[in-house]
# Entry
Amino acid sequence: MPCGARARLTAYIAYQTLAFAERDVLLAALAEAGYSRVDAAPVGTETANPVPVLDFDRNIVGGAALVVRREHLPAGSGDLAFVLTDGAYVPLVPSGARSQQLLERLRMCYGRAKATQLAEQARRRFAATVQRTVSEDGAMTIRVRF
Amino acid sequence: MAEMIISVSPEGELVVRSEGLTRAQWEQATAELRAVLGEPTRQAIEAEQHVHHAHVHGRVLPGA
# Structure
């Protein structure tokens, strides 16, 4: 006899690439990647992307909602910026392999920050225990036991 | 004991797996994920274990 909502599942859901959709998760990811100093648009003004973005020569090249200044980035780079568009923070980075490496690391850090947030929510909601492991290659596994 | 396993690959892929959560718990968790992250790249229910109930039908007969 089926028991509907009480059935117990082995199931999964996977997101290959996460959009940078949540400000607090993105800030946590930036902090984990080593960029805790971020120029952020005042609350309520983010969609106007009012924070100026500077290139390597200190020319203003646009506006964004979140900006990591070039002095906090590897030498030879312009600012790392995030433009809030259609509900997601779109990265604006100088072209080049170094920027791509930085973005890849940031995507991993964003996933880890999102996973940590999910685990914390589950821990609070269900009084669960949480066990977190990180492997040498940066992969992270969190076991939440109910 | 039920378990939710959240994993992130070095490439940033996020996988949330249920091991023994009830369908209701899983549906609640995935609904919240979809609301924030949108539709997933992949998803599957690999196994579903139903709990069987013993239903007793009867009535009390006064004086029986």
Residues 97-126 of chain A form the longest helix (30 residues).
